[in-house]
Amino acid sequence: MNIFSIVSLIGAAQGLFLCVTLIAWRHGNRRANALIAVLFFIMSIALWNAYLLSSGFYKEFPYTLRVYDVLRLLTGPLIYLYVREMIVRPMRWRDVLHFLPTFAYGLLLIPFFMSDEAVKQAFVEKTLQGQHYDYVVLAALRPWYNLAYMLVALQLLREYSKRIRQHFADIEVVSLQWLWNIVIGVTILTVLIGISSVVGLFGVVRPSEVNSGMALLAALWMYGIAYFALQKTMVYSDELRQLLAAEPILALPSATTFPALAILHPKELNPSNDKPSQALPPISSSEQLQYLLRFMDERKPYLNHQLTLSRLADATGLPGYRISELLNKELGESFFDFVNKYRVEEWKERVRKEEMQQTIQELAYIVGFNSKSSFNAAFKKHTGQTPSAFRATQEQQGAG
Question: Between the CA of residue 46 and those of 42, 55, 142, what are the distances in Å?
Fold first, then answer.
């Protein structure tokens, strides 16, 4: 036993715990949970494999050798399908084609799995010394296969991050930062494994040294994900699923898709308190923009904590895609910045009117913000100062 074997063994147990927890989780997107659970299981197998090799106990468990060689080809497809499942659309039957390389490689290794223990041990010992050059070449190519999938997944996340700002005024629930952490972590680990494997082709490092180093990094990544899952509540919630289902995040149409603007009667965000307006939305871009700005000033829909693009579209009678185009082209703003700018101005106006009986956070909630962090970030962006500094300035002016 050594430090690498101990760290690997604990990391394998951590991954297995996450796998079982996600499979048993009965809420949210269960298909997505199953995909990421399989990924954690594979990482556990990888760390278990590293533990056997670094401790020398592989002689006691020869039947587990090279199992990870097959399973590691699933890492890239699982990451890609998981991201797509979360933000774009559910899996389809044809998606099993992504697993064909893994299945084919498993068939090629059947003779090895059926060989006796002595053959397996001899193979591992020679490989760790870098004597199986064909295997070293294959090991150097595998990471780049997975990396191709991860780059596509990162591109999907990047596009998603841009689009949610066009649909939501509060993006904390839908930002999926934890998903970024998972994908970026696996991507960095894969790149490091790929670089180390390529360097190993030239004999600079031995496969055993690469195995130890990557096992340590993988274990640390697993500890980080476990902490984030337990302390930050890694989101697999029904709330997130409903929000993403209600808003077509990656399917925002353009104006050229529609031959004419459909004119609808505006409906209020809260019809129980306000009567529907009888005015029809104007047609020209400038009139539409003025209509939208007047609606924001008079009706103050930004006070609604759950305001989204589709809800504002229902309230104004303007199609959601048209509101996005007006904000992007005419104002150069996203929906997220547009709404939060109104909320910040509303907060400032209420402070100027000496509504000092509420705390900064209480007043932020009144004007539509859902959290302290989102309010502080928006306020600093739109004013260049903190809310407390602004309020202190107003109090000094009032005292003067």
Answer: 6, 14, 14
